[in-house]
Each structure stands twice: as structure tokens, then as C-alpha cells.
Amino acid sequence: MTVRVRFAPSPTGQPHIGNIRTVVFNWLFARQHHGKFILRIEDTDRRRYAPDAVKVIKDSLRWLGLDWDEGPDIGGPYGPYVQSQRVELYREKAEELIEKGWAYRCNCTPERLERVREEQRARVETPMYDGHCRNLPPDAISPDEPHVIRLKVPREGTTTVHDSLRGDIIFENRLIDDQVLLKSDGFPTYHLAVVVDDHTMGITHIMRGDDWISSTPKRVLLYQALGWKPPIYAHVPLVLGTDGKKLSKRHGAVSIADFRKQGYLPDALFNFLTLLGWSPGEGEEQEIFSREELLERFDITHVNLASAVFSYDKLDWMNGVYIRAMSREELLQQLIPFWQQAGMIPTPVPTEVLPTLETLVPLVQERLKTLRDVVLLTDFIFNDIETPPAASLIGKKMTAEESLAALRAVHAFLGRLVDFDAETMEPQMRQLATELGLKAGQLFNIVRVATSNKKVAPPLFGCLEALGRKTTLQRLARAREVLSDWVEEERDAR
RNA sequence: GCCCCUAUCGUCUAGUCUGGUCUAGGACACAGGCCUUUCAAGCCUGCGACAAGGGUUCGAAUCCCUUUGGGGGCACCA
Questions:
Q1: For A141, which of A92, A105, A109, A403 could close a Cys bridge (C-beta 3.0–4.6 Å)?
Q2: What is the predicted ipTM?
Q3: Which of residues 159-188 of A touch strand B (CB under 7 A)?
Q4: Is the CB of A333 less than 7 A from some atom of nucleic acid strand B?
């Protein structure tokens, strides 16, 4: 049997990290069994339909490296892969269910249904359809008048959902609502469409969030009614926000596009997502896994059954690990769009700024958690800085006069340095510090603040090289003036 | 309210099926230290959990029951 699994999003918005984690599990499962991974668009809700959503979904999947074998754009033997193009099929099946006595027409108005629910709530009962149209004669409601078609759920007995991770889950039929299968606009509801499609598309395994568990008996009933064999179900736990609630837009940036914008790497995110709820077990302590390793080792039966809280801490760390593992050239290419987006360098990149970027890459590589961090880390290289306040230019355990002398000395020294590069600078700057009777750190920190207006920055000499002699000297001169003025004011005050 | 799922450090988890090797292991985060021109990175150390109560057993994180906690569902949404 060929494994066939699917991702069936409804195009209502951005796919978010919780859903995508489930998709990752599906994809991994399909690929490791040499099966098919199918994309199907469930656009039966015409009110919530967002035209851009399909493109966004596809982009997100592609960015994460989750390729599909059959789908709306590429077709396949079981098409079409868009539900709105399959409505005839659902109508046929709904009519078939009526004929078999498994469904019935219902023309109750939304107002009546709401009223019934209100009354039930008032009596502290579970709100569900009261069966008003359930036992009407077959011709009581004409197919031509507005109506819905409901599933005729048995009033007695139980329905068992086989979940391959949890075992049998048993539901009492009397608590299952007579679910609408076909809406009055002629479109199917999710429950009917998904069963018809999964069966006709030959889906063998369904892995999805456990928020679906309670609707599964309705589907099992539908399979029975249609005389079909249900697929194998595996309900995987939900991903929760740090507040412990089901992850949603409320939790801020949780869409795949957002992660991309923030500078997370697809491989890191993929790795992280796989480990959210799954682990290799057996005392294995490795956490960084390549896609190939994951394909080899992932095992759906090892996923945790309790929901997992999504937290950025570990993802940030893991993303950093992946960034550090990149080649410099690769990282450079990844970083350029972020510099450009921040308006720090033009598009396309002028050849004369390339050497500056190349100098910067190794300096920032082990300091980045996300690619976007490069903006804050290197803004002072590309943008003009505020002149640092005089007080910040005074070195540790030094007087203002000593600091001023150091600035003067450095300015003079860098002005006459022949090769303005980090390698040449460093040993000579160390020597200069010694000559001034300073520790290297004392001198370097003054220079750092003078040239960046930051207490914390990437390694000094590389930064100076990237900055270039001209800018470096200008900033040193400005700092020198500020400190000099300050020293004089202090002197006058005394 | 009713139904369903679930329960190990703050977080992700190993261990649970096949009780003893668990004074519960790892990772992230946090704290301290080393290294060091700042910050990172790296290395070392520390902090920190079997939800509670009953059973079963010579022995329970592991099996059973109850309670409690957490999550989800109860639409002409998916």
C-alpha cells in the first residue's frame, strides 16, 4: 500500500506555526514511507475565503522545503484539488445518503436554530439540533426550496474512533449532533467534503491536530454510511502559546511569513518544529538534525501526547547554531536582503560595498540569533551616529584628561597607518596602549564608543576596517572635540 | 454545563508499553566562573521536576482508581 497523506488548509489567512508543525509531521511521514504528500484547498466557506491565501500557503510550504506531489497547481490523478471545483461530487453523495436513510433535508431557519440553542443553554444542556426535521416524510421538503442536508446520527449506541497513538476513543451517539453536510448555498461543510475527498483521493493516513478529535466520530459515521473504510487516524497534540492557549494570531508573529521576515532559517525552523512534540528517544541527546537525519529517524508513534508550548528561546538558540554552521559566502547572501530592507545598502549591491560586507560577515556570524539581528549589530557602520556624550568616552579607571590623550594618540596613529586593516591594526594598537600606560581594553573601549556610540559592538578592528579610514578618523575627531570641550568646562568650573 | 484528550525541571523533552540499573538524564533559559578589547561564541559549575491522594507490589515516575490541574470541542467555520 502506498502511503498517501495530505495537507488540506482552508484559504482563510496565513498558515501558522502550529498548523505547520502538523504539516511537517505529515510530510516527514510521507517522505520516509516513499509515499505521496498531497495539497488540497478546502475553500468551501465562501464567506471567509481570502484570495491571496492559497499563494501564501504555497510560498510558506516551499520556503520550508515541504514539497507536494499532487495539488492545485501541479494536478495529479485524483484532481481537481480544490474543493469548490468538486461540489457536484459532494451533492451526489449527500443525495445518496438521503436515499440510504443516513441523511435528511432540513429547512429550519437560522433564527429557529438559534432559539433552540438558547433554550438548551438556559436548561444547561449541550446545544445541538433538536431533530425537528429528522422524521419528516421524505417529500415534505422539496429539493427546490432552500434547505440543508443533515446527517442522521443514530440515537443509540456508540461510535469508536481508532487513533493509532491513543487507541480507541469511544463516543456516545446520542451526544453527536445531526451535523449539516450540505449548506443551503449548495456547498458542503467540512465534514462531508473531507470524507468524500479523503476517500476518493485514496488518503491512507490522517495526521492532524487533536482539536479535531471530537469531530472525528461524525466522520467515522459518514464512512460507515457511505460504505467506505476509514483511513488511519493519528491526532497529534496542539501547539500552545506561552499563555498556555491554542496558538493563534493573538500570539503575535506566528505565521510562517513572519518567521521568514524575522530572519529564521527554514532548516532551523524545520528542525525546531520537528522536535516540538517529538524526540528520538532512547537516550539520544542530539538535537540538531539535518533533514536527512530527520527523515531517517522521525517516528510518528513517538510524538508526545501532551500539547507543547511554543517558546522562542530555544528556537533562537537553534537558529544561531544554524547560522554559525553556514559558510561565510552563504551567510553573506542571506544577510544582504536584510541590510537592504533596512535601507542600509542599496539594491542591487554596488560592488564597492561588497568588501565591507565581507569584512562584516565573520564579525557578526557568531553574534546572530536571527538574520535580522544584523541590522542592529551593524547599523553604525552604514548610518551616521550621534556624537557620543563626553562621559561615555572616559575609559575605565581613567580620568577625562587621560582619555582625551588616548583619543588624540589613536587619531594620530590611525591617520598615519599604512594598511588600514584589522590585522595590521591590532598588534600596533596593543603596543600603543602599552606606550600610553593603558590596558588594551581601556584603550579599545574608548575607541569603540567613539566610533560606534555603543558600549557593545562586534570586534573593534574589523569594525574600523569596515568603517574605513575616513569615517573612522572623522568620528574619532568628533569624539575628541566633545571630550576636549568637556575637559575645559570642568577645568573652568574648578 | 456536557463530551473528549492530556499530566516529569520555567520551557522542549528522555525514562512509562516490557515496574528495580532513576539519590530521574539531556537541551533551552537563568545564575556564577573561565576565556576575553565590549558583546557574543566556547568550556566548566550551579539552580531546577515525577500534580495530589489512595491502592497493587518485596519494590512505582513507570500498573489501577479518585481528585486536581492544563488543553480542546460542542456552527449552514475549517
A1: A105
A2: 0.94
A3: 166, 169-172, 175, 177, 180, 183-185, 187
A4: no
